[in-house]
Amino acid sequence: MPRRSLRQSAGSAHPGASKRPSSPQSTPNRQSKRTRVSARSKATPTKSQYFEQEPDEAPGRDQPEPDDSPAEDESGYEDEDEDGDAGDTSSGTHSEDAEDDEYSSDERPAPKKRGRPQKPARETQVAAAWGKKGKELWRTGVDTGLEPGTKLIIKKPKPRDAGDTPYTDDTIHPNTMLFLKDLSSNNDREWLKMHDPDYRTSLKDFNSFVERLTEKVIEADDTIPELPTKDIVFRIYRDIRFSSDPTPYKTHFAAAWSRTGRKGPYAAYYVHIEPNANFVGGGLWMPAADGLQKLRRDIDRKPHKIKRVLTDAGIRKEFFDGVPNDEKKAVRAFTKKNAESALKVRPQGYEKDHRDIELLRLRSFTIGKKLDDSAVMGAGGLQRIADLISCMVPFITYLNSVVMPDAPSSDEAEGDESAEEGAAA
Length: 425
What we know:
Residues 1-134 are annotated as: Disordered. Helix content is 48%, strand content 6%.
């Protein structure tokens, strides 16, 4: 009997022993559930714009941690484990319900991105930005004061209205002068791109004026051929490769007439249109060494030729401020206009006490006259410029005869040969 009781006690003890391991298995489940709830309850709502993710909440947090972690030893759930399973379940359920109510609300703030806060829209500053230089809304990188994603439509400017003065082929319109004046104050590519209609209209106005002026130039000097406008008018773009001035555009319109247009070795007539700086001139500016040597040789051997041109009545009146008919005074007025590029010492091969040393030191041979805006614009502007060009014809003809002389014709060659034979006889 004692043995049988022992067997029964042993048998009864065995089922009890098999049930006890289930308790440790259920406990980690509850503890895992409470731990997940606690992690969610500890998470700070993403309301701060400077919110940063804590290291404990980084990806991979669901991986099991070692049992000897100090965080588990100091966990606040140790007291809940001692209270029992009922308390644990109610506490976990209450935390989940409260959290679901909090995060399911429609009024929760939307998460904000990191970085500096966006500035609110300011209509007054947007309106004022149109009047500030360099702060126009069409410029790249300008702060419009609008929220991100807001569309801003800016109408492309139209050309200025002609007003009471119509555009004509034989005049310079006042709007052309206004455009050049604005360009001098806003000499950058973005501004010209936004004011391209004004530029096109002004350029067309100047080109039509040049076409009519070309007719006058050909009448005055029959050596000037009829060339297309593109071979006469200078481009508005500046060559800034070797310049300390970074401005990309010229603030004037200009054209030149020669036997080869605006380019070439021949002396040319030059017209320059710019607000308060209009200019009409002609000649050779810094000719090549070969041409300069020919001019100096001609001045040394035949000085009377250039002096006869400089004492011309039209040249003295229009370009030398009406000096008397005196060779020395005319030469002095001419060298004064070209003193900027002249040599400070005698040129090589000539004595410093040469009688025409002032002319020999020159490196440019030009004459010109400044005109007011009122003299250029209006009905009389074309004729005024044409008259000045007519006065320069003897000067241009002399320069071309020295630098680029024409080949002698057959009649001239025969006349020269007969003259030489008569002189020999």
